[in-house]
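quick one: histidyl-adenosine monophosphate bound model?
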Amino acid sequence: MFKKVPGTKDILPQETSSWQTAEAIARKIFSFYNYQEIRTPLIEEAALFNRTLGSTTEIVQKQMFLIHNQQDTYALRPEGTASIVRSYLENSLEKTQGFTKLYYMGPMFRLERPQKGRLRQFHHIGAEAIGSAEASLDIEIISLADQLLKNFGISGYRIKINSLGCPKDKQTLSETLNKSFQDKITQFCPDCQQRAKNNVLRILDCKNEACQKIVETLNLKQAHLCPECQEHFETVTHGLNNLEIPFQLDPKLVRGLDYYNRTVFEIKHSDLGSQDAIGAGGRYNNLVQELGGPDLGAIGFAFGAERLFLVSNTLNQNPPKKLAYLITLGKAAKSAGIKILNQLRVCGIPVDMDYLNRSLKGAMRAANDTGATYVLILGDDELKNNTISVKNMDTGTQKEVAIQNLTEELKC
Ligand code: HAM
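yep, here:
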């Protein structure tokens, strides 16, 4: 028998209602903030991600699912931001819409070692606002993420934020780090020794204890920020305080993708264990230009949907459904029953029937198993009188109802 690919999941019918609930809540909250849905393909040219995420990043180096054709190399998208900026430019949204607020939900793919909360196919629920460098937009994006979490019934999360500054500030920070780490390189873990060559900033958020200890000695603050970036960051933190959104400043937060600058943030939940980020985001002011567009600011975030389910009770509660279940006794009743079934469905009443020719007892059990609120029983006697027997499974009461009144009866 075939098995699913490691790190992928079948979302079975008993789970899909939780997904639908999460998606419905997300759509509602996104609409309150005036974000519109965008759906981009699951495959893109691999070069798009090399260029935007950075060729030395972990995702590009180790985690891309690549598809080699005769001439082209495609990648299953590891994240949504790059595809959305590609689509924004390819469809000239910068000309037709200018400032645009978009949201998305869908599968992402990363070739990681699977563990709790870490999958090879997982889902993002995210937002991207493209076309403004205003600090007020950073405040909106973080408050949108916060509102989503509250509406998902999630509490106990921590929002960590930092500013990387503009590309020049990032450069200053990298140079400072390079200098500070110069005589300590051999004390770092092998990954960080590599990072010291390719992307020294990533040493800051390495989880290895020895590396953390060295980083602690730096006593990092936001000293690398130029006055404009400093002011931008102060406006953001002031705005979050104003909205009473708690956050923690974390100068070690640098994020793993090259496109970020200025504000970056990560939302963590301690109930998740080692993979504790439920979502993350930040500004990527140069990405639109990097992909051939005008000089436009942009910011966004994405939640890992599977991780949301791990920390939310609300999302995992299935809403009660109202379903009627028809049991027919005999050939004539079955034929009449099929017609009744059809009429009820046309009138918008969810109804199902027994397709396994069960005995009355067996069919009652099946009705109970489906969670039906009403059981409709149609036998020869009922057929003769043009009635149907309606049993309310919640109260246990049963009554005869004229078939012509059945729709009204069940609508109540
Ligand atoms: P990211 O931090 O790579 O950011 O992913 C966002 C979230 O996706 C993570 O915080 C985590 O919850 C979830 N996630 C990541 N990898 C996995 C995995 N292998 N299995 C399960 N969940 C996972 C981004 O992707 C950026 N595009 C976010 C962004 C949007 N920045 C600006 N706009």
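The domain at 13-166+226-311 is CATH 3.30.930.10 (BirA Bifunctional Protein; domain 2).
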